[in-house]
Every structure is written in C-alpha cells, then in structure tokens.
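Q: Hi! New to this. If I give you a protein sequence and the SMILES for 2-acetamido-2-deoxy-beta-D-glucopyranose, can you show me the bound structure?
A: Yes, paste them in.
Q: Okay, here:
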Amino acid sequence: MAVEWKTVFMTVAVVCLCFVGIPIRVDKPIDTATQALFKDYVKRFNKSYENNETEYALRLRQFQESLEMIQKLNSERKSEASAHYGLTKFSDMSPHEFLHHHLYVGLQSRLMKCNHWRNRTHHSHERKERAIKPVSLPERVDWREKNVIGKIRNQKTCGACWAFSTVETAEAMYALKTGVLEEFSVQEMIDCAQNGNIGCAGGDTCSLLEWIVAKNISIELEKQYPLTLETQTCKLKGSGNGVHIAPNFTCDYLVGNEEEILLMLANHGPVIVAINALNWQNYLGGIIQFHCDGSPVHINHAVQIVGYDKSSAVPHYILRNSWGPDFGDKGYLYVAIGENLCGLATEVSSLDVL
Ligand SMILES: *[C@@H]1O[C@H](CO)[C@@H](O)[C@H](O)[C@H]1NC(C)=O
Ligand SMILES: *[C@@H]1O[C@H](CO)[C@@H](O)[C@H](O)[C@H]1NC(C)=O
Ligand SMILES: *[C@@H]1O[C@H](CO)[C@@H](O)[C@H](O)[C@H]1NC(C)=O
Ligand SMILES: *[C@@H]1O[C@H](CO)[C@@H](O)[C@H](O)[C@H]1NC(C)=O
Ligand SMILES: *[C@@H]1O[C@H](CO)[C@@H](O)[C@H](O)[C@H]1NC(C)=O
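A: Thanks. Here is the predicted structure of the protein with 2-acetamido-2-deoxy-beta-D-glucopyranose bound:
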C-alpha cells in the first residue's frame, strides 16, 4: 500500500559541510611497535610518502592517534554486532584533515554559513502534516536487492556529498519508475548548483533540491557530463536526456520520529540524510551504536539510506557512502535505529522524478 507523500518544503536545512572537523594535536613519543605497524600500513595501503621523511613523520604521528582512537572505540563495543574499528585508508590523517580536505575554504566562515542556514530554517519553515497511513512495516527493506542502486562512488577530496547522495537518490527513483538504472551527473550539480551550494567546498541537499525544482534543471546523464571532482564552470547543455525532480520532494526534521524514515524507506524508496561522519575515519564494519554525536552543529556529511533491518539483534539502517568501495563494508555502513545517532534524523529528504 502506497503512502501519499505530501510536499513538505524546507522544514529544516542544515548546510552539509562535508569536511569539517576539529584539529587535535597531541605530541607523544612513538614506540618501535607503532613504527613497525606503520611501516606495514604504508605498504598495505600503497601510500606515496614512503620516501618523504617530513611527511612520513607527520603521518606516523597521525597514525598513532588513530591507533589510540581505534582502541578506545573498540573497547566500548557492547556485542558482536557493534561497530568495529581498525586501520583504513584514512588512518594516517588527523581528524581535522579527514573532515577538512579543502583548505582553501576557511573553517570559520563555513561554520558561520552553517549557523546562518540553521537559523533561517527555524524561522521560515511551513511544515505540512503528512498523511502517514498506519501500515505494518516490513522487518527488513533493502533497495539494493531491487536493482535500483548503482555502484559505490568515490568523492575523494571533493566535499560534494550533498550532490552525490542526491543524484544517487534520483537514480534510484528513476530506476523504480522506468526499470532502467542509469548514472546521472554529480558533476553538473557540483558546477552549476546555486542557492548556497559551493561545489566541492560544500552544500546542502535541501537547497540543492530547491534549486533543481525552481530552475527546472534536467540532471544529465553521467556520460554527458562526467565526473572530474573539481569545481568548474557550469556547462549546462539541456540535452533532453536528463531527469527532472518533482516539486513535491520532502525535507524533514525527524528527530524523535524515526518511524517516518522507516515508512519512507518501506513505502517510497531510498532517502538522503545529513550526518556527522567524524567518528567514521577508522570504521571497518558492524553497527554504529555509540560515539556518534547527533547534535546539529556536528553535521558534516550526507549519505543515502538504502534500507533497514529490524530483524537484526541491533535494528539498523543501511547507509550508502561515497568514499569508495574500499571503505566500510564494501562502501556501506550500518547505524542503529531510534536515537538520532550521528544526527541522521536531522535533515531527511525524499524525492520523485518526472
Ligand atoms: C510527486 O509528484 C509526482 C509528479 O507529479 C508524482 O508522480 C508522485 O507520485 C508524487 N509523489 C508523491 C509521494 O506524492
Ligand atoms: C600504488 O600507487 C601508485 C601511485 O601512487 C599507483 O600507480 C599504483 O597503481 C598503486 N598500486 C596499487 C596496487 O594500488
Ligand atoms: C614532503 O612532504 C611535505 C609535507 O607533506 C611536503 O610539503 C613536501 O613538498 C614533500 N616533499 C617532496 C619532495 O615531495
Ligand atoms: C539566529 O537566531 C537567534 C535567535 O532567534 C538570533 O539571536 C541570532 O542572531 C541569529 N543568528 C544569525 C546568524 O542570524
Ligand atoms: C521544464 O523543462 C522541460 C524540458 O527540459 C520542459 O519540457 C518543461 O515544460 C519545463 N517545465 C517548466 C515548468 O518550465
């Protein structure tokens, strides 16, 4: 039974900064065991700084901090299902660098932008009540099994998570509608989206959707507007082969109301969420249940949710990330349902395509 999703416009919009963190600097002597471990790490992850003494020393220090963080996070695991942490391709980065690849945009000005956006939405939203019919939720939903979810992308150092997660959701809704799974252009969004979005330096899903609809933007096919991962001049062509987003997209603050996220996933399709990814740096797999602050000031990333599993020992969402298939569980992460973990209920978007 389908639920009617009425337009809920700009209930909340938190600018997704994609990469913002807090610098941490601790200088401690590094023991030989750590040095040996790091030597292996550099080989295993094919790091390019093996012969650069300066960078090697810097990375070693950051690696040591990651080891301490990994130990702390793993020591507080509650069950086999709990998230586990270990060495990833990001373990040689400082938390600051991890979330803040884009040094040309000042951290401070981006935080101010974030505050500005949050304020605006608190005062100007006109949330409409949604007609949620009481349906019994399936125990599990996984859109990957319906052939509407493409391969895991890699945003690398381009902070356009807001564009990746939105385009990926447009692809899924297009596939559900037409039966054809296409790749649409993330780069077009990076280059062209206005309304406060600034390409690889950051943006927000809801303001992107607002812009796409207001400007009647056609999202082109990936092959017509391929990914470069750099913010370039907008080259809108209007080929006619693109996809349009229906004006009735939704953007909701659903903290305390995660049942609505499950309903959307079960009855409509994948959703886009803003999220705090700071503690994901050394994530290997399992279900995140702790250490993922959900307060709005810590929102720094956006991902697609492609399903959930309530039948698991720890009921959880299935998150599709854009950090490559070599991160997490083949590119996916799992986060427990019900406590706004990582802030994932702060800004939840769903859409239809025309
Ligand atoms: C949104 O609008 C589109 C186009 O008019 C329509 O096909 C779709 O069913 C609508 N979605 C919802 C959830 O009402
Ligand atoms: C290792 O990195 C180099 C350059 O950094 C690259 O050319 C090479 O393909 C990589 N090898 C593997 C196995 O990833
Ligand atoms: C070595 O690494 C440092 C720090 O990352 C960098 O500034 C420098 O350019 C590198 N030197 C070479 C020769 O690559
Ligand atoms: C945000 O709103 C609060 C209270 O409504 C106000 O005091 C503050 O100046 C606003 N901040 C910005 C950046 O507009
Ligand atoms: C939006 O653009 C399409 C072509 O890309 C056109 O067919 C349609 O009429 C436009 N809609 C509006 C409301 O301008």
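A: The pocket of 2-acetamido-2-deoxy-beta-D-glucopyranose (ligand 1) is lined by residues 4-5, 246, 248, 352, 354 (CB under 6 Å). Let me know if you'd like me to explain how to read the tokens.
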